[in-house]
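quick one before i forget lol
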Amino acid sequence: MNILWLQSAGCGGCTMSLLCAENPNVLDTLGDAGIEFLWHPSLSVETGCEVQALLSAVERGEIALDVLCFEGSVVTGPRGTGKFHMLAGTGRSMLDWVRALAPMAEHVVAVGTCAAFGGITAAGGNPAGAVGLQYDGRQKGAALDEGFTSRSGLPVINVAGCPTHPAWVTETLLILAGGALCAGDLDVLARPRFYADHLVHHGCTKNEFYEYKASARKLCEMGCMMEHLGCVGTQAVGDCNIRPWNGEGSCTRGNYPCIACTAPEFEEPGHPFTETPTIAGIPVGLPSDMPKAWFMALASLSKAATPQRIERNAHSDRLVQAPSVKVRK
């Protein structure tokens, strides 16, 4: 299986995340599965005329394209022309190239939230007209039409995340190489369900604090960050805490609240990322599928039953009281 990887308006962070994959690294993982890059802007040696010739050959159908991976948002400005981002040397906008190459691909994969929904580059009034491949925020129909499907019959596969987890990218590509991905394996926003069926809350190391509603008030404290510090891990999709980056890291493990970076329009929540909006002291965003009345009742009981150890540790930057050892009589 071959991959053509293009980068557009973004920071390149998803490629950086992918290259940080370890045990095994990304090149070994893909190479062992017979997956090769036709071209990648950070990995390939071809430049200039060589790349232009390759793109033209793919467009003409002379080189079969198995997967078009796209990183970064697609810039549509000014006035829908896409000319804010011209692909150097080709005289054509990246928007034009996307629309020409996507129908030639067996599969189209949006790598990262910018490519999927517009992401960070669509924030702040979006003067560049940045959109995702098939979604403009939550609205379907963007650089590619609402009804677009690749040659496989699938829509754009949105491997969302900011940056996306390296294993989400490699696992998606491995599944595609094995011919094992169908429409039922994607959620309502076309994200692969192998990670989108989980919540960031699952496996979070702060879950004991969450259970007792022992809440941190500062980023340096160990407690749960939902009540005061804006964490939306109970609502955000992703298996970040089940298989953390390189076996160790995640946002919440680094004492930073989850900001739901796998979701459309996460970049402008309407409040600071480290603040929890409330109404009469009740968080606006509650855990998925949980009625507000039940949450408030359970939260009150949990707070009343919080062990001293958990309360003390929640407001410290390190473990200050260990669990007591139960001695059998």
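fyi The first strand starts at residue 2 and ends at 7.
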